[in-house]
Amino acid sequence: MFKLFRLAAFVTLIGLFNAHCKKENETPLEKQKGIHYKEINSTLNFNQTSGLKLDINEDGAYDFEIYKDKYKTDMDSLKGFFVKNLGNHKMIEIKLTHNPLFDCMNLMSYSAEEIISESLPEEHSWDSKNGLLALRHEPNTTFIARWSDGAPKTMGIRLMVDGKNYYGWIKLQYSRENNSITILSYACNRAAEEPIKVGQMQ
Predict the structure, then answer these.
(1) In whole angstroms, what is the distance from residue 125 CA to residue 118 CA?
(2) 9: phi then psi, degrees, rounded to nearest 5
(3) d(CA 123, CA 139)
(4) What average pLDDT does range 168-179 have in this prediction?
(5) Sign of the C-alpha dihedral computed for residues 167, 117, 165 and 67 taken in this order
(6) In this predicted model, what pLDDT tens digit does every residue of 41-63 receive, in sequence order?
(7) Pairing state of beta strands 196-197 and 124-127?
(8) What DSSP character marks residue 71?
(9) Distance between CA atoms of 20 and 31, rounded to whole angstroms?
(10) Which residues of 23-57 are buried (b: 16+ CB within 10 A; e: fewer)?
């Protein structure tokens, strides 16, 4: 009887130890389950001196920045709104759209309910280049490009934390009236390597 008690106690201790080790290996993102969602409503225009930085997983380090840039030569003058990653993170971009002036690629925009995961159509790629939102050839006053029609659009993102991938989205909207970009909201799946639907909040 005593031997059985000792065996049961030993098995319980092993179980507790394994559970503790598993908890220790969890990233900060995994310690809470489900979808992490946040509304932002922050706007960037060309009068501002700095971009808008996002800490998607709220670990104290910025993950992405919405910023503005300009390029001028004797023959051309351009302004643009872009997205860049601030770590080992990536976004879904469109292949064969590289713009060498800004070292950027066109960002893919997703519709509601589409799935963001590792799998992508052949024409898209997970990339860490700057993502183009809108571009303006001066003296034109209106920005053009995929994201500049005034409709809310969603980009797909992949965060890399402690060697694990976490999928999410950022919803943005360009204003033709103000020539500005607004970050409306974002979300990410706290479960590593698990997909997320565009617009999913819980």
Answers:
(1) 9
(2) -65, -40
(3) 33
(4) 93
(5) negative
(6) 999 998 888 999 999 999 999 99
(7) unpaired
(8) E
(9) 13
(10) eeeebebbeeeebbeeeeeebbeeeeeebbebebb
Q: Which two tokens stand for residue 138?
A: 């001066």
Q: Give the integer Cα–Cα distance in Å for 73 and 176.
A: 26
Answer yes or no: are the C-beta atoms of 197 and 168 closer than 8 Å.
no
- If phi > 0 it is left, if psi is from -120 to 50 it is alpha, else beta; for residue 96 that is left
Summarised one tens digit per residue, pLDDT across range 71-99 is: 987 778 999 999 999 989 999 999 999 99
The tokens of 123 are what?
A: 């024409």
- Token pair, residue 179, equals 């020539």
**Token pair in block for residue 189:** 């799946």
Strands (E), the chain: 35-45, 52-54, 64-72, 77-85, 90-94, 104-106, 115-116, 124-127, 130-137, 153-161, 164-175, 180-189, 196-197
